[in-house]
Structures are given as C-alpha cells and as structure tokens.
Amino acid sequence: MNKKKRVMRTILSAALLAGGLSSAQAKMSDDTEITLIQLSDIHGNIVPHAGHVKYPDGSHGYVTNGGGVAKLKTLVDDIRADNPNNLLLAVGDSTHGTAEVMFTVGDAIMPAMNAFGIDAYTPGNWEFGYGPAVFRNRFTPPTGPLPANIQVMANAYDGPGVTKATFPTLAANLYNVNGDPIPAPGRGKRVLPAYKIFDKGGEKIAVIGITASIVPQQANVFNIGFKFTQGVEELPGLIDEIKGQGVELIVVQSELGLSQNVKIAQMFDDIDVVFSAHTHEVTTGALLVDDDSVTVTTPGAALSGHERNKLAKGAAIVVETTEDMHLGRLDLTVNDGKVTDFNWVAIPVDNDVAEDPAMKAIADHAEAPFVAGPGLVRHTFMPGGYCPANNCGDITKRGLQLTESLDTVVGHTDVLLSRHSVLEDVVNNFIADAIRAETDPVVAAQTSWSGVDLSMTNGFRFGNPILSTNEGGTGEITLRDLYTFFPISPAVAVAEFSGLSIEKDLEEVLSAVFNRNVFLQRGGWYVGLSNMTQKIDLDNRPFSSSGGRIVETTIGGQALDPSKRYVFASCFPHGDPLDRICRTNGGTGHQFFELADIDDYSSPLSLVGPKATEQIIRFITHPVTGQRVPIIKQVAPDAYAHPVHILRRYLANNGTVTESAFAKGRIQTVDSTQVGNPSVPAPASAIPGLIQPIEGAGPKFMSGGLIEFD
Question: Are the C-beta atoms of 225 and 182 separated by less than 8 Å?
Fold first, then answer.
C-alpha cells in the first residue's frame, strides 16, 4: 500500500472511531462528536518544500514537495467538511523561519494565516522576534506607528489581504511590565485574553493559551515592555473562572514545549486536552497523562481497557505536531463535558496532498517578490539602531540586502542536511566550520590574533532539510535553504573568551536541553561546534560531587584551558550587550566583519570595531507624546556580514558538502563513572520516535519534576 492510501486509511479510521462505534462501547445518543485541528510551528513556510514525515503506521521518510499553506488548507477544509463541530487551534512560531517572513517582519504569511479561519491562536517565542512594536500591532489593538527601521520591512509586503491578525489570539502568561515603556494605565496588565469559550454541538469548550516563557532568554530587543510567566501560576484561577461559567471541557494550547506541557497535564486534573508546540516533535500516538504516568497510545487503534480506564478517571490527552509537515486531528467523543473516547492522527502533509487553489494564489503572490521573474525586488532588513532619529536614509546601503531569487543554487551536498538530532547534526557542523574557515584568515591578517580558535552555531530546531540524491533530492543547496537554517538577522563577529566562560555557558546549554526538572528546560538543542570536541556524561551527571555534564573539552586538539583566552567567531544578536557571541557570554574585544560591497557576499571582508559599546538599549522621553520609548543603538557596521553571506562564501570556495568533512563524532556521550570514560549511547526518549528525551537525562534523584512512563 502506498503512503497516500495508508494516510487516507488512517484518516478514515479516525473519523469512523470518533463518529461511529468503538471497540469498547456503542456511541450514546447524547454524545457529541467534536474535532480539534492542530496547526503548529509553521515557521514561515508559505510554499511546499522538502521535509521529513512520519506516518501513523510507524514508517517515515523524506518528501520533496510537502508542507506549505495551500496543502495545509486542503486538509483543514477536508476535516471541517467531515465534522462541522470543529475548532482550528493554532500554536506559535508562524511568522518566523524563512526569508520571505524575515524580510517582511512576518507580513508575507499573515494573509494566508488569516485565510485559514483560525478559531484561536497562541503566539510562540519567535512571534516576538521582530520586537514589541511588531507583536503589538499584529496581535493587539493598534499601539502607534512602527519604528522607522521596522517600516522598511513592513512596507516590503504589497499583496492582498491584511497583515494584522483577524483571529483571536490568547496568552495567559504575557503581561505588560510594571514600568517603562508602558504608559501607567496598562502597566502590569495582561496583553492578550487568557482564554476563549466556544459552543460546539451544545458542548462548551474553553481554550486557554500559554505562550513561550523563554523570550527573556533570547535577544534583549525581543521582550522590551513584556513580562512572561510560566503559565502554571495562572492556571488554577483560570480553571476556576472557566468552570464557574458552566464549562467542563478545557483545552490548553501551549508553546512551553512537550516536556512542560506533559507536566502541566499531570498537575491539573481539570485539563482535558493539551495541544503542545515549540519542541518540533510528532506524537504519532497521543499521550494519555495522569498524576502517576504517561501512556503512549497506538495510532489508529481503539483505546485499550487500561487507556479507557485512565481517560475515565480524568487523564489528559497531550499531542504535538511539527512545523507544516503534519496537521493534527483529534476527534473527541464528549458527553456532558466529559471526554469518553478519542482518536488522534498526525496527518503527513506530503507530496500527495493537493494545494487549495485559493490559498495557493495567496501564497504565490507572497512568493513573487522573492523568486526569479518580473516580480523579483530588492529586500532590506534593517535591525534596530539602523535608522537613527527615525531617518533610514538610503536603505540600499545599510543593513542586510537580498537582491537575488531565493531559488538561486549556491552549492551542493552529497549528504542529508537536516536538524534532526538533539546533540549533533552534520548541518550544524557544516555551519560552524564554514564560519571558522571564512573568518580565520581575515582575523589572522587584520588583527594581532593569530586566527580563530573556535566557532559555534545555535542549536536551532527549525530549518527544512536539504536532500541529497540518496533521499530522492537533487543535492542542490539554494539561497532559500540557507535562510531556513538562519532566518534571523545577526551580524558575524569575533571576540576573545576565557576557556572558563566557554565551558560554563556550554554547561548551561546542556542543562537547558536535559534538565531533570522540566520547567528548567529551555528548548532548542545543543550547539554545533568547530575545532572543538567534547565528552559529556548525560546519565550520571550533574551533581555537586561529580561536577557538570561536560567531562572533557578540547579546542584545536588540546584540552581546554580555563585561564586561556580563545578567539571565537560566530553570530552577534543586534541589541544585545557587547559581551556575547552565540550563546556565550563574557567576551571582550568584539570586532565585526564588514562587506566591501553590501550587495556582494563575495566582496572582501574587513574587521571594524563596534559603533556603540554602552547603553545599547536605553529609554528616552518622546518630545511630542511625552511617552518613555526605547532607543536601540547600532553596534555592527552598515554592511555587516550575515551568516548566510559566510555560508555562501564557503560553498563558493569549497564546492560540495560531504559527510566525511562534517561527520558526527565531535560530541561523544560517555560513562564518567568508569575508568577511561568509555563511550555509551546517548539517552533516548521513553517515548519511541521522539528526538529529545522530554523527561530529561541524568540521575533520577535530581528531578524536580520527573515524568514517569507506563
């Protein structure tokens, strides 16, 4: 049976189980069949692309033409036609992830998002990635004009439809700060409604939104004027308030990530369903979560007696899908506010799904300015600080410029390039090596440093795979591909760091990924390393008698020296304090790479000092309104080098990406309790098929919130 038939059979099974007889009981006359549709973490993918899909029968593979808003719309409409008692619930990170949305501060995808007819939306951490003005003007009542630099990108979208959200947006844990720059009447108040109540088939359903809590840990410009909580503190009061309105069926849609969402389901008996996002996992089998344990259900199968007993006692259903490659369908049988049966399917959005014509027209219009043809135009990204006194000047001479079609072929690969591992991937090794290779000779020639000792790249989850011929692809790397791996706007910089600072911050990254207390997990995976190797123990560490998870680090083949100063080149987020490069703090002597020709990635690179070093973010009183407003200073040069520039230079100079050059093996998991630190397998999730162990890793007695599995 081919993939398409297998998927359609599973969808049909879901509909039959939800709407007809289950193997355990007949449908009661007063049952209501409700379908919840999950749309999560689209990450700016407007058009179809290569992707990885998981099928309900346990198989998986790569497709060349999956995802995209038009295919998603086809599946959404099919489900809606199957059951009119439905809700389309979308969870975060939609306006970030591709060049099309980056160069339009998310506007390019908004007409498509509005066309879905979303019933409730909860923003993700990357919805804040263009700064507070964009977020507020998109999801709240108008708050005033956009800053001049943001207007450059916002003016770049010139298509049909509106770019402001026309759907309800919910976030129980997002507040205005109690101080500048918020005017006094709004200080400390919630930015968005916490929940919305729906009536479907006579059943009242409350949907509570929890946005990502990690935004304050990202670039400082993301969260000016915002305060984030974990969401846990608000839930008891909200649940009481909702139940006081006669609502029994409660759905939480949350961008906290799968581990924290499972724990929330364990903590609150009144929650019936959790639509999880942020961690980019696919739960092909729904998770049944109660106070004691988590049970993984079998896709397409009727609930077992044990599972039905858990559901009857109030267990919550927790599910997650990843980006635009899957659409979630959860069919619920509800009786007097209680879920008595359900069926879940993560529907693959693969090659065989047709594109909805009306949505395709919206997508094509958004795409036209970015591809070869008469519609292709220049795009400029202007970070904060690049328009002093709100005067941007000639925008073709400052900021990040995009003048070519995104379909331009810039290199080739004979190995799969995909972010699909929590610790190490070939693609991250390639990115880190490319940055070091291209910056090293410039540093050696233009500074007193002898060269670049190390480079890293962030452990992002997002980015569409680049398929070699082994996976049915062409092996071509396009400009579009590079921007999906780096759809943010940092400058490439170099600075000195102590070995102690480097290892300390890498310990913090490992803790954010593997902490036994799930509420201390941040999200994201481990960083890519260049000219570095590590041995780490994830099973027996950390605790005070054994030290951290890192057992050994080498730089340039030599053991890391905590006192030595190392030259480190990587990305610098605009607006951050001038001590940071790529998840590492405590740097000194920052210099930035500048292109001789702002439009030519291959033009000579020179090193220049920062334009500002202090008070990079400060508040002033607006001379007209009297309101306190943030001012961001420009730090990097006008024609700053971006990671995509560096990757293009490397590909032009070195040709094909090969597995032998960037193979895994730089990070080794070991058992530090044994002599010689022998290699051991990396910890795997207790849920088969998940990339990250959501229960964390390390000594179980260290847990502050351990998740147990049946």
Answer: yes
pLDDT of residue 13: 41
Separation between Cα atoms, residue 575 and residue 490, nearest integer Å: 10
Q: Give 612-622 pLDDT, tens digit per residue.
A: 999 998 888 87
Residues 6+ apart with CB under 8 A from 382: 149, 150, 152, 153, 392, 395, 398, 399
Report the predicted TM-score, pTM, of the whole model to 2 decimal places.
0.94
CATH class belonging to 372-702: alpha beta
Domain regions of the chain by residue span: 3-19+37-357, 372-702
Report d(CA 348, CA 326) in Å as an integer: 5
Q: Are 349 and 75 in contact (CB under 8 A)?
A: yes
At residue 143, the pLDDT reads 77
Q: What is the largest CA-CA distance in the chain?
A: 81
Fold of 3-19+37-357: Purple Acid Phosphatase; chain A, domain 2 (3.60.21)
Torsion angle defined by CA atoms of residues 497, 499, 501 and 502, in that order, rounded to the nearest 10 degrees: 90
Contact status, residue 36 vs residue 325, Cβ threshold 8 Å: no
- Give the separation between CA 482 and CA 504, rounded to whole angstroms: 30
Count of beta carbons in the 10 Å neighbourhood of residue 609: 11
User: Does the structure show a pLDDT above 60 at 16?
Assistant: no
Instruction: Enumerate the β-bridge partners of residue 567.
Output: 496
Q: How far is the C-alpha of 6 from the C-alpha of 4, rounded, in Å? A: 5
Instruction: Dump strand ranges (E) for 177-229.
Output: 195-200, 203-210, 226-228
Domains 3-19+37-357 and 372-702 agree in fold: no
Q: Residue 13: which H helix or E strand, with range? A: helix 3-19
Return d(Cα 128, Cα 21) in angstroms, integer.
45
DSSP string, 638-678: TTBPPHHHHHHHHHHHH-SB-HHHH-S-SEEEB-TTSTT--
CA triple 226-227-233, angle to 5 deg:
150
What's the pLDDT tens digit per position in 274-287? Answer: 999 999 999 999 99
Q: What is the mean pLDDT of residues 191-207?
A: 97
pLDDT (average), residues 345-360: 98
Does the structure show a pLDDT above 70 at 390? Answer: yes
Instruction: Show Cβ contacts of residue 335 under 8 Å, excluding neighbours closer than 6 positions.
Output: 28, 30, 31, 32
Name the strand (E) or helix (H) holding 110.
Answer: helix 110-115
- For 508, the 3-state DSSP assignment is helix
Is 261 in a helix, a strand, or coil? helix
- Would you list the DSSP string of 348-382? E--TTSPPPHHHHHHHHHHHGGGSSSTT---EEE-
Confidence band, pLDDT 50/70/90 cuts, at residue 141: confident
CB burial readout 251-281, b (16+ within 10 A) else e: bbbbbbbbbbbbbbbbebebbbbbbbbbbbb
In DSSP notation, 298-343 reads: PTTSPPPHHHHHHHHTTPEEEEE--GGGEEEEEEEEEETTEEEEEE
Length of the chain: 710
Contact present, 600 and 586 (Cβ < 8 Å): no
Q: Give the chain's mean pLDDT.
A: 92
pLDDT of residue 219: 86
Position 391 confidence tier, pLDDT thresholds 50, 70, 90:
confident
Within 10 A of 239 (CB to CB), how many other CB atoms are there?
20
Of residues 182 and 116, more confidence is placed in: 116
Whole-angstrom distance, CA of residue 257 vs CA of residue 281: 9
Interval 244-277: pLDDT, tens:
999 999 999 999 999 999 999 999 999 999 999 9
**569 Cβ neighbours under 8 A, 6+ residues apart:** 435, 436, 439, 440, 443, 452, 454, 455, 492, 493, 494, 581
